[in-house]
Amino acid sequence: MLVLLLALWSTCVLASVGDRLPQYKECTSQCIETLCYSNLPYLPQYDINIVSRYLFLWSCPLDCDYKCRSHVANIREAQLLPIVQFHGKWPFDRWLGITEVFSVLFSIGNLCANLINLVKFSKLIRGLGHGKNSQARGVMLFQYWLLLAVSVVGWLLSTIFHTRDIPLTETLDYLGAGAIIMANFNAISIRYFELFRAENQRKRQLYQSGLLFILLCHYLKLARKWDYQYNMKYNVVIGLSALAMWVAHSLRVYRRYDSQVFNSIQLSPYESKIQQKLGPFCKVRSRLIPLIPVVLNVYLTTSVSLELFDFAPIAHLIDSHALWHLCTIFPPLIWYDWNLWDLELSLIDKMA
């Protein structure tokens, strides 16, 4: 989705204001000397709890770094001074060894939203019959299933990263986001150019082989030399291309089908499901259902303002990035019902 690539707009910051503060330097030096490289008894302010030490593998120097960031942040807050970043990141209050509690919870929420749809699409694929339409439906359903499976893995990696922020988990989080963006591009391009139909099987195979080759080359380039700027530009190009196709496809569906098709009995269950989910928020007429992807993209683009107007964590727990993750939970719950409706609509149109 669009919002995942926007996370890649943030580049690696090697030094921040907090890193240069004398209080921070003195605190980390004293903590490491006292706790890590001496036989003196632990001082209470530098002690590491068992969960942080053994479950989340907080080493002594890293724990000192975390404790001192929090200590300096508390001092500055008490003095009514602005909270500053350390190593390019805001200081958070750790909970049972978890670095960013609410980002973890909201990442799990996104994971569950995609997992629910993954289970549903798995059942639909297993229940397919035979015939030309069933074959076309199965191919397109698999593209959405693949996007959902990749999304589940991607959000799992996001959960792990926000639980324990280290270079390895950060890299996996970036790679997972990139895979979701490519899987999304694959799904909408297969749908937009109707490569899921039986007569386009050869084209689809060649096309998807090309996409896989591009993704592997991208990963190999990053493996040789990690480049945040290159990774950002690559994902922005793929992501914006997918966004353009989603909007173009939505508008094409809106223009193509007349009211007789929209009132089809075959579409009624799909429309009812969408309207039922949107009921608490708004009433949607059948004629406007084709525009749902446009509305969702506007909603997601608007939510990006949380990322652009970054602010220090509220109560040292919730920052703009966590709230952005909260905003991305809802769209998949509607988007994939729309995809089922759209697929059924295309098959009806093909038979007409």
Automatic annotation (TrEMBL):
<keyword id="KW-0256">Endoplasmic reticulum</keyword>
<feature type="transmembrane region" description="Helical">
    <location>
        <begin position="95"/>
        <end position="119"/>
    </location>
</feature>
<dbReference type="GO" id="GO:0016788">
    <property type="term" value="F:hydrolase activity, acting on ester bonds"/>
</dbReference>
<feature type="signal peptide">
    <location>
        <begin position="1"/>
        <end position="15"/>
    </location>
</feature>
<comment type="similarity">
    <text>Belongs to the PGAP3 family.</text>
</comment>
<feature type="transmembrane region" description="Helical">
    <location>
        <begin position="174"/>
        <end position="193"/>
    </location>
</feature>
<keyword id="KW-0337">GPI-anchor biosynthesis</keyword>
<comment type="function">
    <text>Involved in the lipid remodeling steps of GPI-anchor maturation.</text>
</comment>
<dbReference type="GO" id="GO:0006506">
    <property type="term" value="P:GPI anchor biosynthetic process"/>
</dbReference>
<feature type="transmembrane region" description="Helical">
    <location>
        <begin position="234"/>
        <end position="254"/>
    </location>
</feature>
<keyword id="KW-0472">Membrane</keyword>
<dbReference type="InterPro" id="IPR007217">
    <property type="entry name" value="Per1-like"/>
</dbReference>
<feature type="transmembrane region" description="Helical">
    <location>
        <begin position="140"/>
        <end position="162"/>
    </location>
</feature>
<dbReference type="GO" id="GO:0005789">
    <property type="term" value="C:endoplasmic reticulum membrane"/>
</dbReference>
<keyword id="KW-0812">Transmembrane</keyword>
<keyword id="KW-0732">Signal</keyword>
<keyword id="KW-1133">Transmembrane helix</keyword>
<protein>
    <recommendedName>
        <fullName>Post-GPI attachment to proteins factor 3</fullName>
    </recommendedName>
</protein>
<dbReference type="Pfam" id="PF04080">
    <property type="entry name" value="Per1"/>
</dbReference>
<feature type="transmembrane region" description="Helical">
    <location>
        <begin position="205"/>
        <end position="222"/>
    </location>
</feature>
